[in-house]
Automatic annotation (TrEMBL):
Organism annotation: Flammeovirga pacifica
Keyword Metal-binding: no
GO cellular component: cell outer membrane
The protein's name in its UniProt record: TonB-dependent receptor plug domain-containing protein
Entry keyword set: Cell outer membrane, Membrane, Transmembrane, Transmembrane beta strand, Transport
Domain TonB-dependent receptor plug: 113-215
Compartments (UniProt record): Cell outer membrane
Length: 1025
């Protein structure tokens, strides 16, 4: 509170000046321009124009030049002289080459940037209703692949900059107002002022090991001197299921399972002349409309010495599955302030406090949970049992699940292998998570008068976080076939984390003639600690979520608990030097020296250099051209490191083991947890990047092209050892991974009278390959239950790839089946899959498993267009990805069992039914064996390519002639549809959701029953006073 009060006190202070000037600012159409920045050149003294374009400013008598700047317009400098009134007309900057963008530890003009850096407009961030602002990178930034891990409210995202380079963490570093973060869920997107992505190693090298996976640089909005400005941005909308799987109805289901039973040598199960009374569409019953809303209010202003910006934001989203059982809300508070103490000293602070609350439902569980059960439950069971069945249910199971109004949920008497009533699951369980975050920094700048261009900055940043969770399931049964009750259970957990960083930088800028030199040196010290404790118990004494605590259990033996403390420290020294001649030839060199506690003393420190160069060709070859206005070549080489491994992997560590019995007593023991490796060292990525930029026809058409080759050597990963060792695998440097690709960004911007349009497109290609694995043929990753095949890592293949069986169509007749069986020693029949003997040894076995695809898209695409006519605007945004395979684990899991009575996708209706019927999908039988137990490229892997109409928005802004009378600066209303259409051949709910079960490479590409994304329709408004 003292910080808030002090900031407002400083901002309200005024200082006497020698002269008052005023004026009006207009655009190219002679309309007033509100919000234009007016600064006395060489100082921080300034103001902004009001809603009529007017400004007024007190200036010292020695002031000589005013600088007028506004986003989308060319900066204009005006000599003050003896004038006291000014009429200013700003010209549109068709391509903002003079725009200043944020880079590592500084800012540079876009025209002289030599690295691969992409910017995202703040309007694009707010165009789609997102929880995490990084989601706005999807389809808008070439070289960045964004995957929504789940559509459940509050779920995370997976971001990969230029592919997957590590078997560990692949997420980029986030730097918010100088504070380094691992995620930005806490951040209100409305608070963001600038958003840049450092993609190449040379650009991110200034952040050393922290920037190994790319860097996302974010600055938040700041106040400006002048009148107090109040703004409101908000929307409210309704969500619905964007897509539904094509599942069999009751009639199709019965016919299908009759066929499977007959083909297995059994009789028909269903009498089609006497169908059951129910034909339940479980998707219709489970999916529901759900609200989504966001509200943000900001207050900014200040004096010539102090400025501030404060905001409060609230975001809330209910789920399309589970409603308030699957919801999320966030409350955020922010205060930024900057203060000029003297001509040499300035200081400021940024504070952000947020609380997040989330309720969730179980998903991504392969064969359990509400989502999987919705897709696989038979359609002949009712949602609610008729009252006549209540007595039967009570007799079969002790604790049938009931709704709040006392109705019994329907229970199938078929063998669904654990699949149960999805509505009963949702109503019967509760998962609650709570988070609090305090993030901020305080900085001091010193610019000595005696040395022009010298600047010293010290910055202390911190993050304090806490979380807690509670999960509860009562004793219950939803399975009439097994007649089993599930035990009641509770899980609780809490964690607290503290992160601090202290950075000091000294920079110097000097110009002489046409030459400009900039240098920077600095150091960073960072510490992160996390303490956590978890516990669980079963067979609770008292039911109800209000009693869901660990001490509510019948037997102490049912309780488990664990906890630990994690501590990480990093110290770094870095330097940067820039040379610029006439904004035509540019050269940049960066060095970074990092030390991490994750490595032993001999390998603790590592050195990472980089160099960048640029040549603005148009200044030499096209200076008088009417077509080519800007052309530039860029080249860079950089090295970055990675140290994202468990702490103390170089030491032998001891941990608690499971309880064991000795003489009838239970004991807890301690043992070595994993083998130590004192020789582990930094994982290092080297990257070459070549870039080409060209602007044509007054820069209305602008093209950016980048090609890159990134190689990450000394890959850090657990090196598997035989189970007989009885100890965890050691962490080792095991190989080299390559990512190489092409990135294209195209923008066309023009205006014709009152009609303006801005069209941009991106396309990026990435090829991922493991170049070497030291001492191993391959390393295995995630493996679904009941399947002979899994994700793997092997030299010459993607990290990871699907390791399974190749196929060559369907055996169409007895002759083909006989020849196949004689060649491979099988007992296949017509309609079975023809598997390929890849090693040619005359047998089909595990040795024939091979590369059958990978989970990474080759191309990432995006198309964004905005059209404006007078006060009306429309924008449309498409994004898509092509080339990846996705394993639909949830839909295929029960196929392997053979006798399951669950439902199927209607694509199974295209199965083989006789010679010539199809060559792409096998026959159906309850004992189909290899067809469904061997992971293959015919049945299990599906093409996950898609194109999505992400956003369609219509807006209207009230004219200034109306607003000026009400003393309002801006009013805009808009209506938006999001996730409107998806074009894909994938049979699951969403080709994007579920592609990553975590951020580890060896768990990618598995849809294990993921919560799908929602389609939404929202109405919103933007107000500025």
């Amino acid at each position: 509170m003292l910080t808030f009060a002090f900031s407002f006190l400083l901002c309200s202070t005024t200082f006497a000046q020698d002269k008052t000037i005023s004026g009006q600012i207009l655009d190219e159409n002679k309309a007033s321009l509100p919000g234009v920045s007016v600064i006395v050149k060489g100082t921080n003294l300034g103001t902004v124009s009001d809603f009529e374009g007017n400004f007024k400013l007190s200036i010292p008598s020695e002031a000589t030049v005013l600088v007028f700047s506004f986003i989308g317009y060319n900066n204009q400098e005006v000599t003050i002289g003896n004038q006291t009134t000014f009429d200013i007309s700003l010209e549109v900057n068709e391509k903002q080459l003079d725009e200043v963008i944020v880079v590592g530890y500084g800012v540079e003009k876009k025209a002289v940037v030599t690295g691969a850096i992409s910017s995202v407009k703040t309007d694009d961030i707010l165009q789609t209703p997102v929880l995490n602002a990084a989601q706005s990178l999807q389809g808008r930034t070439a070289g960045v692949q964004v995957t929504n891990v789940s559509g459940q409210p509050g779920a995370g995202i997976d971001i990969r900059v230029r592919g997957t380079g590590s078997n560990g963490n692949n997420s980029p570093l986030y730097v918010v107002d100088g504070v380094q973060m691992d995620n930005i869920n806490y951040l209100n997107p409305n608070d963001i002022a600038t958003f840049q992505v450092l993609k190449d190693a040379a650009s991110s090298a200034i952040y050393g090991s922290r920037g190994a996976n790319g860097v996302v640089l974010i600055t938040t909005k700041e106040g400006k001197s002048g009148k107090l400005t109040v703004s409101y941005d908000g929307y409210y909308g309704v969500q619905q299921a964007a897509n539904r799987a094509d599942l069999m109805n009751a009639r199709e289901y019965m016919e299908f399972h009759n066929e499977g039973s007959v083909n297995a040598g059994n009789g028909e199960k269903w009498d089609l002349d006497n169908p059951p009374a129910h034909d339940t569409d479980w998707q219709k019953e489970v999916f529901q409309n759900a609200p989504i809303q966001n509200h943000s209010v900001s207050l900014s202003g200040g004096s010539e010495k102090s400025t501030f910006m404060s905001s409060i934001g609230y975001f809330a989203q209910d789920g399309i599955i589970g409603g308030d059982k699957s919801n999320y809300n966030r409350l955020s508070l922010r205060l930024n302030s900057n203060h000029k103490i003297s001509q040499s000293f300035t200081f400021g602070q940024n504070l952000n406090f947020s609380t997040e609350n989330k309720n969730g439902i179980q998903e991504q569980t392969e064969h359990e949970g509400a989502v999987t059960s919705m897709l696989l439950h038979d359609p002949v069971t009712p949602v609610y049992a008729p009252e006549s069945d209540y007595a039967k249910y009570d007799a079969i199971v002790p604790s049938p699940v009931k709704s709040d109004d006392g109705r019994y949920y329907g229970m199938s008497d078929l063998n669904l292998q654990g699949i149960t009533n999805p509505l009963g699951i949702i109503d019967n369980t509760k998962q609650e998570y709570n988070y609090m975050n305090l993030v901020g920094n305080v900085y001091l700048n010193f610019q000595p008068k005696m040395i022009k261009g010298l600047n010293f900055k010290t910055d202390f940043g911190f993050q304090l976080g806490s979380s807690k969770k509670r999960e509860y399931s009562p004793i219950s049964s939803l399975d009439q076939f097994t007649k089993k009750n599930s035990l009641s259970s509770v899980r609780q957990g809490q964690s607290q984390s503290t992160t601090w960083q202290w950075e000091n930088t000294l920079s110097y800028t000097h110009s002489f003639g046409d030459h400009k030199l900039t240098g920077l040196i600095g150091n960073t010290a960072r510490e992160h600690s996390n303490e956590w404790i978890n516990g669980s118990g079963t067979d609770l004494q008292f039911s109800g979520y209000e009693n869901a605590y660990l001490d509510n259990k019948v037997k102490n033996e049912s309780q488990t608990n664990d906890g630990n403390r994690y501590l990480h420290r990093l110290v770094s020294y870095f330097g940067k030097a820039n040379y610029n001649y006439k904004d035509k030839y540019m050269l940049t060199a960066i060095v970074r020296y990092d030390g991490s506690v994750n490595f032993g003393p001999e390998n603790r420190f590592a050195f990472f250099p980089s160099v960048q160069a640029g040549w603005v060709i148009s200044e030499d070859l096209f200076k008088t051209s009417d077509i080519v206005n800007f052309m530039r070549l860029r080249a860079s080489y950089g090295e970055v490191g990675n140290e994202s491994i468990e702490p103390f992997a170089y030491l032998s560590t001891i941990g608690k083991t499971e309880e064991y019995l000795y003489n009838g007593e239970r004991y807890t023991g301690f043992a070595a947890q994993k083998m130590p490796n004192p020789a582990i060292r930094w994982e290092t990525a080297t990257e070459i990047n070549l870039g080409f930029d060209v602007g044509l026809w007054q820069n209305k058409l602008f093209l950016n092209v980048d090609v890159y080759d990134r190689r990450r050597k000394d890959l850090l990963s657990d090196n598997p050892v035989p189970l007989i060792y009885g100890i965890g695998a050691p962490t080792a440097n095991i190989g080299t991974v390559q990512n190489k690709g092409l990135e294209l960004s195209l923008n066309f911007k023009n205006s014709e009278g009152d009609f303006r349009y801005d069209i941009s497109a991106i396309a990026s290609y990435n090829d991922n390959k493991v170049l070497s694995i030291d001492g191993k043929d391959h390393i295995l990753g995630y493996k679904p239950d009941f399947y002979d095949g899994q994700l793997a890592m092997k030299e010459g293949h993607s990290l990871p790839y699907f390791w399974g069986y190749k196929t060559d169509g369907i055996l169409q007749n007895d002759a083909e089946a006989k020849a196949y069986n004689e060649a491979l020693g099988k007992s296949a029949v017509p309609g079975d899959i023809r598997f390929v003997d890849t090693n040619g040894d005359g047998a089909l076995n595990a040795e024939d498993r091979t590369d059958i695809g990978d989970p990474f898209h080759d191309w990432t695409l995006g198309l964004n267009a905005r059209f404006e006519y007078k006060n009306f605007d429309m924008s449309i945004f498409f994004q898509g990805q092509t080339g990846a395979k996705l394993f639909n684990v949830a839909a295929m899991r029960l196929d392997a069992i053979g006798a399951g009575a669950h439902n199927y996708n209607t694509r199974f209706l295209g199965r083989w039914t006789g010679e010539g019927s199809t060559n792409s999908f096998p026959r159906w039988s309850h004992t189909a064996g290899d067809n469904f137990t061997l992971i293959n490229d015919m049945v299990h892997l599906e093409d996950a390519s898609y194109v999505r109409l992400k956003t369609l928005q219509f807006g209207y802004s009230l004219p200034q002639s109306i607003l000026s009378k009400a003393k309002i600066q801006n009013v805009r209303f808009y209506f938006s549809g999001n996730n409107l259409l998806t074009f894909t051949n994938y049979s699951g709910l969403d080709p994007e959701v579920g592609q990553s079960n975590d951020n580890q490479a060896m768990g990618f590409g598995m849809d294990r029953g993921s919560y799908p994304q929602a389609r939404s329709f929202i109405f919103g408004t933007n107000l500025t006073f």
